[in-house]
Amino acid sequence: MLDLLNFVALSGVFNVLFFWYASTKMKSKADPIKTLVVSFVFSIPLSFLLIGVYTTMLIYAAKTGANEDAMWEYMEQEELQ
Description:
Number of helices: 3
Mean pLDDT: 75
Strand content: under 5%
Low-confidence stretches: none
Shape: elongated
Radius of gyration: 17 Å
Helix content: over 70%
């Protein structure tokens, strides 16, 4: 769970910094505060999506009796097929 939270935090920080940097390179200079707000708005759906996938995976693991590591292996195997 901590890995997911770290990933969400890092993606949010990257998103904020990217929007902030992009606003400085535009011909018409955008307000940095508005850009910051927009970047947070874009990172919220990403966070909910990641949390939803992780929660679904943990619920399925609990029903089948598997642990978190086994679920990650299962998901990687399914992705390779």
